[in-house]
Design brief:
Number of strands: 11
Subcellular location: Periplasm
Keywords: Periplasm, Signal
Oligomer: single chain
Protein name: TRAP-type C4-dicarboxylate transport system, substrate-binding protein
Distance between the termini: 60 Å
Strand content: 15-25%
CATH class of one domain: Alpha Beta
CATH architecture of one domain: 3-Layer(aba) Sandwich
Order of helices and strands: HHEHEHEHHEEHEHEHEHHEEHHHEHHH
Strand order of the largest sheet: 7-6-8-5-9-11
CATH topology of one domain: D-Maltodextrin-Binding Protein, domain 2
Structural class: alpha/beta
Number of helices: 17
Length: about 350
C-alpha cells in the first residue's frame, strides 16, 4: 500500500471502522470509474487508403472514437493512412502479426493464395450486396477459416459491393466488348476469368491505379463505385458498366480487420471487453452496410461527372458465370490442397449468398 492509500486523520464523528470501510468501497470501484482521461494504451492502425477515403473518415475515425469513449479514454488508437508506417498493402497482415502496427485492414487478395478461405468470396460472381455478403464472409470464416490468421485477433470480415467496369472508351455489355481491352483486374481469380474472355489483364494495388489509367497502361478497371471519388476515377474514365440488379455482382474483394494478438492479450480484462464489444459479426455487418452507402455516393460522383452508365443483362452475366467454371474448379482444388474441403466451402458460400438474396 502506498502512502497515498494510508488513512488520514480521523475527523470528528468518524471512527477507524468508517474510514476503512470507505477505503474498501474505493478499492472496489470499477476501473472505468476511476480512470483519468489519459490513455493507458495507444494502438497504431495502419490503413492503405489516403486520408480522405470514406473508409478512414466515415468508418475508422468514428470507430476509434467509440472505442475511446467506451474505454473512458483508456484506449487511444492512432490512424496512419496512405501506408505511412511503410511497406506495401500486401505486407499489412505481417505488419500486424509482427507488431509493426497493432491493427490493420487487409485485403487477402493482395497476398494471393495465402488466406484461401478469406479469399474465396473474391471469386467471380460471389457477391450480392456488401452488407449481405459481409455476413456470409463472417459466417464462412467462423466455420472454415479459424486458423488463417495466426498471431492475430480477428475483429471483422467484410466485402465491398459488386465491382463494375470503368473504362475510358466505350461500354462493356457483352463478352465481345471485352476482347482486346487492357484492364486492371481486381484479383487473381477475376483476372483468370477475364483472360479467358480475351482481356489483357494486369494487376496492381488500387493505390497504383491512377498512374496506370493516366499513362495509358490500362484502358480501364473493375472496381466498385465506392472507391471512385477517393481516386477521382470519374475524371479518368467515361463509361461504367454494371450487372443488372437481378444478377450477382461481377466480384467483391474481401477484407479482414485484424489486431496483433499480443497487443490484445496485453490489455486488462475490461479493455479486452471494449475491443470484443466493438468487433465480431455486428461489426462485419456494419462495415458492409457502410460500404453499400459508400457505393451510392460513388455512383452519384459518376453521374455528376456526366459519364455514361450501361447495364450488363442478367442473361449475359449467367453466361459469364458458366464460362468461369474452370476458375471455380481450380479454386476448389487449391482449397483441397490446403487440407480443406473445397467443394463444401464453395457450396456453403453459394447457399449463404442465395439465402441472403431472398431476405
Amino acid at each position: 500500500m502506498t502512502n497515498s492509500m494510508k488513512p488520514g486523520p480521523v475527523k470528528p464523528g468518524m471512527t477507524r471502522r468508517t474510514v476503512l470501510a470507505g477505503m474498501g468501497a474505493a478499492l472496489a470501484t470499477p476501473a472505468f470509474l476511476t480512470r483519468a482521461n489519459a490513455a493507458e494504451v495507444t494502438l497504431r492502425l495502419h490503413s492503405m487508403l489516403p486520408a480522405p477515403a470514406p473508409m478512414n473518415t466515415q468508418f475508422f475515425e468514428p470507430w476509434i472514437e467509440e472505442i475511446r469513449t467506451a474505454s473512458e479514454g483508456a484506449i487511444n488508437i492512432e490512424l496512419y493512412p496512405s501506408m505511412q508506417l511503410g511497406g506495401k498493402p500486401g505486407q499489412l497482415p505481417d505488419q500486424v502479426r509482427q507488431g509493426i502496427c497493432d491493427i490493420s485492414w487487409t485485403l487477402p487478395v493482395y497476398s494471393p493464395d495465402r488466406f484461401p478461405v478469406a479469399e474465396t468470396l473474391a471469386l467471380p460472381f460471389m457477391v450480392t450486396n456488401a452488407e449481405k455478403t459481409s455476413i456470409v464472409m463472417h459466417k464462412l470464416m467462423d466455420e472454415f477459416g479459424q486458423g488463417e490468421y495466426p498471431g492475430t485477433k480477428t475483429l471483422a470480415f467484410h466485402t465491398h459491393d459488386g465491382g463494375k467496369f470503368h473504362t475510358r472508351e466505350g461500354l462493356i455489355q457483352t463478352a465481345a466488348d471485352l476482347k482486346g481491352q487492357k484492364l486492371r483486374a481486381p484479383n487473381q481469380a477475376v483476372g483468370k476469368m477475364l483472360d479467358m474472355m480475351g482481356v489483357e489483364t494486369v494487376f496492381f494495388p488500387v493505390t497504383e491505379m491512377v498512374v496506370g489509367l493516366s499513362n495509358g497502361v490500362i484502358d480501364g478497371c473493375c472496381l466498385p463505385y465506392e472507391v471512385v471519388p477517393a481516386f477521382k476515377l470519374q475524371e479518368l474514365t467515361k463509361f461504367t458498366s454494371a450487372p443488372a440488379p437481378a444478377a450477382r455482382g461481377l466480384y467483391a474483394n474481401t477484407f479482414s480487420l485484424i489486431m496483433n494478438q499480443r497487443a490484445y492479450d496485453g490489455l486488462s480484462d475490461d479493455l479486452r471487453k471494449v475491443i470484443d464489444d466493438a468487433s465480431g459479426m455486428a461489426l462485419s455487418q456494419r462495415i458492409g452496410r457502410q460500404f453499400d452507402a459508400f457505393e451510392q455516393k460513388g455512383k452519384e460522383a459518376v453521374i455528376a461527372q456526366g459519364n455514361t452508365i450501361g447495364e450488363i443483362s442478367a442473361e449475359e452475366v449467367a453466361s459469364w458465370r458458366a464460362m468461369a467454371e474452370p476458375v471455380y474448379a481450380e479454386w476448389t482444388q487449391k482449397l483441397n490442397d490446403r487440407g480443406l474441403d473445397g467443394a463444401a466451402i464453395l457450396a456453403r458460400a453459394n447457399a449463404l449468398l442465395d439465402a441472403g438474396q431472398q431476405t
